[in-house]
Amino acid sequence: MARIQARVLRGFRDYMPEEMLPRQKMLQIVEQVFLSFGYAPLQTPAMEYSEVLLGKYGAEGDKLLYRFLDNGERDIALRYDLTVPLARVVAQNANLPLPFKRYQIAPVWRAEKPARGRFREFMQCDADIIGASGSAAEVEILSLGERILQRLDVGAFAIRVNHRGVFDGLASLLEIEAPDQKIALVRTLDKLDKIGREKVLEVLANEVGITAGGLEIVSAFLDLPTGDLDAAAAFFSEQNAGAAAVSDLARTVALARETGCGESLLPDLSLARGLNYYTGLIYEASLNALPEYGSVMGGGRYDGLMDIFGAPPHPAVGISLGVDRLYAALSEMKGSESASTATKVLVVVFGDEGFVSASRLAQELRGADFATEVYLQPKTKIGKQFRYADRKGIPFVAIQGSDELETSTVRIKDLQKGEEGVFSFSDAVAWIQARL
Amino acid sequence: MARIQARVLRGFRDYMPEEMLPRQKMLQIVEQVFLSFGYAPLQTPAMEYSEVLLGKYGAEGDKLLYRFLDNGERDIALRYDLTVPLARVVAQNANLPLPFKRYQIAPVWRAEKPARGRFREFMQCDADIIGASGSAAEVEILSLGERILQRLDVGAFAIRVNHRGVFDGLASLLEIEAPDQKIALVRTLDKLDKIGREKVLEVLANEVGITAGGLEIVSAFLDLPTGDLDAAAAFFSEQNAGAAAVSDLARTVALARETGCGESLLPDLSLARGLNYYTGLIYEASLNALPEYGSVMGGGRYDGLMDIFGAPPHPAVGISLGVDRLYAALSEMKGSESASTATKVLVVVFGDEGFVSASRLAQELRGADFATEVYLQPKTKIGKQFRYADRKGIPFVAIQGSDELETSTVRIKDLQKGEEGVFSFSDAVAWIQARL
User: Fold this and answer.
1) What is the pTM of this model?
2) Using an 8 Å Cβ cutoff, are B317 and B132 in contact?
3) B83: pLDDT strictly greater than 90
4) Which terminus of chain B is less hemmed in, N or C, by CB atoms within 10 Å?
5) What digits encode the pLDDT tens for the residues B5-57?
6) Which positions 354-393 of A are in contact with B (Cβ < 8 Å)?
7) Which 154-193 residues of chain A touch chain B by CB within 8 A?
């Protein structure tokens, strides 16, 4: 067999233990919060019939699908997000008790041009409520998001909220009727944070076809003071669709605040979100300390999407976490841990004859709830065993030589502080616990 | 857009919440044990260059790969197992501190003919030690497996153990020299549990080309009393490779028993395992109460596999759990839970004006560590809200009507027992806790 080069595909990557461990810790917290709010896990296949996915993400999305014929000549594709598979599941299971609250944390695949921090396989982390209209479900989703960011301990954050109907109102002021032009308007406004106001107005003029008079209206719209829903209401006449949207949004925000959540909510009429399927509330969260990471969490109401497979129309509202951004932000805030293992104690081994006692000690330490390894090459010199602990970031080493065995004690060394002591087993446990 | 049928691909399935919840619980226990032994998580991509996977699983395996050209005309394939990607990672990371102990719990894809209980996407759950030769690593893997089955509470089980060298010895007694014939011998013996002894001898005679004299040797080999390594040692002459293998196996078993593990170990020279790459210890676990589920866990030493990408040779030993079989066995033993949610308490809502107090109560209940839902369509009749709790398997309903609000109490109903009471909040918490 010719030698094959060991390499990963362009746009893909391995997650080594030192990165997986803190990522898993983060996702566990998220999952706990999902479960505490009554969201249940759902798992859909990695592959779907292509027709299930095609046309759901726009022409651009269709091109980014990993799509192929399987051995049975079926036209199949890897999932592109978790929302369309959810819509399929809802359509297939007419008897689901509603509201159906599910979460899914799973990789999705998009054949995008790889770039720094952008991969063709990445984790999505979504929770959605299917079958609940009105403000209550929206307040819950906002409160869920707020709780997650609090539990992740990311410091202060803002959840900017808006309502898609505001853009119907704006489009009507601009006398835009063609759906494509309205979509282009929203997409362009969505770039505000990235390209800035001037460039947005330029694109609106040159590419979206907004007139000079229209640009003045957009300017006035962008001048609306952030957080001031009264000013927003005054901007639209009562007959304008924007007025109803602002009043809807005001109700949701007030209710969220009344329930004791919503401290971080900031109504912001310029928040657009790029996806086309939103129909009501939209929101995005960013971290005060690291605004450059952009949106770390977002979502909204998408009442029209769930019936793409001919199921009865279901109202829907959801949340999606930017796992990679959140992880990067957390690493920057807290410093990345260098341990490539969760092991807390390495038991060193004195030759083959020492393996049995070392294994027994390890089992006792595991019983005391310390992840514990025995060094598995018993003939290795003690110095090399210590270096192994050091390289892996294992904080403690336990040693039971003939002296300690005779006196039923154990020697524990704290590698970070360079301190050690000889203890009874229960004292050793307490000593380690106090230092972890 | 034409209406698309909502369906999953043949050989694939959705895992709905009622199944995901107990599966996740099971995998969490497994993961905790992995971590407590110092195994760290690794995540490799779902896709690899086809050349990385081709030829590693035999001609049959190559045919079962999901293989296709991506948009950039790269020849890629979905992972078929977790072992070959691990070998790739080890080859790519020459500076990994050894032994490298990793686990991975992830789906793999094989285009097999779908059958009852056999899917084209299924979860693998592997832990491996790379870079440790000798008995210590083998004892640890056995002890890890034993601990997992104990923690999963599957009742009594047997871990049958053998050594691949035994078949080198047997092949030499049968004067088999061609590698293919030896592989066929092992593969046929591996079917002993499935097709029985007579059929095995028939296949050996007709398809593997074993002579009548050879069949007598095989018969004597199969007659060796299970568990008796002295008899096994006596079967092979001292010069025969089988003798060294038996002595190796005896050392590992003795060491495992000395470390306090290994109670369930049962040496069985007829245990073969189908995969070709094993070089030493092999083992498989089955449940005493449900032998018909076959092997629920297995693995062995495969010292030759890790250098397929030209990395320096690394000894390796691993464990693989049969997630689906274990889950099915656990469900049969304990009865499958019918809850489609982890929610413990549903807070019913009395109209829009009741949503704020209901949300506050839910937050308090979450704070007391009960997963709690608020019913999200506040205008819904109370009877329908109760039916929702019932259909989802939520055990408790909390009610705070005007009476309870006035007296700062909460009414809790135990839906399973049909009992209820009005409590202060802290008494309510205690009442629920006592019944969970």
Assistant:
1) 0.94
2) yes
3) yes
4) N
5) 899 999 999 999 999 999 999 999 999 999 999 999 999 999 999 999 998 88
6) 355-356, 359-360, 363, 366, 371-374, 376-378, 388, 391-392
7) none
